[in-house]
Every structure is written in structure tokens, then in C-alpha cells.
Write a structure and sequence with these properties.
The strands form 2 sheets. Strands 1, 2, 3, 4, 5 and 6 form a 6-stranded mixed beta sheet that branches. A 3-stranded antiparallel beta sheet has the order 7-9-8. The chain has 2 domains: 172 residues, 2-Layer Sandwich (Ribosomal Protein S5, domain 2); 145 residues, Alpha-Beta Plaits (2-Layer Sandwich). It contains 9 helices and 9 strands. The protein is of the alpha+beta class.
Length: 350
Amino acid sequence: MALPASDACGARARLLLRACFGREADACASAPGRVNLIGDHIDYAGGPVLPMAIAARTHVAVARMTESSAASRDEFASEWSGDAGWMRYAQGVLIELRAAGIAVPPLALAVASDVPVGAGLSSSAALEVAVARAALAAASASLTPREIALLCQRAEHVHAGTPCGIMDQWCVAHADVDAADDPASASAAILLDCATLAWERVELPRGLPRELAIEVVDSGVRHALRDGGYAARRADVEEAARLLGVALLAELPRERWNEIDALPPRIARRARHVVRECARVREAVAALRARDIARFGALLFESHASLRDDFDVSTPELDAIVERARADGALGARMTGGGFGGSAVIARSA
């Protein structure tokens, strides 16, 4: 009998630990990827976002290094043998855990994952949270999901060099609290206010006559948010907030939106996306709660146009997926994640 996908992935992590280090796992942990339904590039502006867990997971198996192993540092292995960049994320989490006073011993750590890297589905956050959970288990310690999310975000900022917002780590760290045992059957997204970290579940319409189906399509174009485009967009957003005299751009009230037109053209386009995307997220949540899946889908199309035209983070491949979905009668579609490649999310009537 074939193992469920998640169990098989966990078995791969344990086998990799044994093959690379000759040790059995002292602790294992996992975390899911996520898809953001709507609200990209507004988390670091303090806006609301609407992500949900996906079925694909990252698994981490760890073994404590003993004195007899003569090891005083962590050792790493993963299925991504050709790319050592992932180790910055894993090592960064271990460094931050120890800096927080948690006595994490030197570890041998093996990673297996079904979350595609560079597809806009939070492979880095899934890795970070899974590493944190496994290391905490090895140290017989615990942190709350909130503490794990904030620690992993700090690790990504400081050690991986990506100035990400909190959305990915928050959704991944909280998903298992709120989703079903099988994330593929989860019926709720997470509405997170990234300024206050207040959050709640938003149920997706289930059951006829207006059931919503969510589909994720990988464009095949890989992104690397640490390459600079993401940081440049964040800098533009922060410059817009500075010029408009607000701490966070999402705080700009609607009656002041006309002031955006006076900003330098590129900064104005970035700001226009942020304030309108914040409004779209709120309207999307209202549409889901009213079971108005047609309006929800229309907002996804609007969001994609904004990310393409005002934020310049889409690609021809992502645009083509969205237009094919429109032609096929989908309710809505948009790129998801940081952009510059990755995946699109499509809403259909089931």
C-alpha cells in the first residue's frame, strides 16, 4: 500500500538522515506550504492578507550530536543537494532559537519537501517552521505559533537576506491549528491584519449551489526573492509611506488616496497597488462570507492586473495562465506570492 504523500515525505527525511549521518531521528516535524488567495505585497505595508495552507509539506528529521560524534556544530542534508542556499534559512532558525535562550544541542538535520521551491508557495517559511518545530522537540522546549512565526521571520531577514513580511510564517505556523488534518481539504483561510497580528478564520463556501474550488497552477518560472526585486518593491512602498507621512502605507485613509497622484510615477504605482489591494482583501472576505463567489473571483482578476501593471511583479507565463483561466470560464485568477515567477491561484465554481 502506498503511503499518503505527507507520510512518504516524512519517511524520505528519516531515510536521508540515516544515509547521510548514520543516525536515527530523535525528533521529526513538518509544516505546510501556503497559497495566498489575495493580498500580495501588502503584508509589509501593514495590510490584511488572506492565505491558506496547501497539502504539500516540508519534513525535517533531526538527531542530537553526541560527544562521541566529535561534532560541535550543526550538520545539514536535504533533497536539494545541488543548492546549498536553503541552509541559510535552516541555520538562521537554529541561531535565532539559541539567541532566544533555548538550549538547542548541535544537530544533524535532514530535509525532504513536497513544497516546490521558488513557486510562490512559501517553501522558505515551510522550511523555517519545520526546522523550528524539530529543533524545539529535540531541545524538549516549546514556543507558541506566534513566537515561532516571528522568530522565523527574523531568521529570514537576518540570515537569508529577504525583507519579507509576516504573512508566510504566520500562516504556516498557525495552519495546523486551524486546518483539517489533511490541508487539501481545509475549508478556511486565515485573515491576518499584518499591522496588529489580529487574525481569524474565513470559511470558504462549501456545498451547492455556490461551492468554491481553489486551484494552484505552477508557471514553471522560478523566482528567488533574495535577488533584489522584492527588496526594491518594499523600499518603494516604504518611500511612499514616508512621502505621505504615514508609518505604514496601509494606514492611508481613502479620503487621502488622491495624494498618491502627486508622488513620483513609479512610487505612485506601487502605492496605488497597496491601498487598493488592501480594499480588495476586505471586499473579498465580505464576498466569501456572503457566498458571492462571482465577486470574489472578479477581485482576483483585479488583483492580478494591479500586480502586473502597478507593481511590475508578474511574468508573461503567469499572465498567460490567468488569461487561459479567464477564457476557460474561471471565476477569477491571479499570480500569488512575491512574483517574478512562481504560481497562479484560480477560483472556480465547483
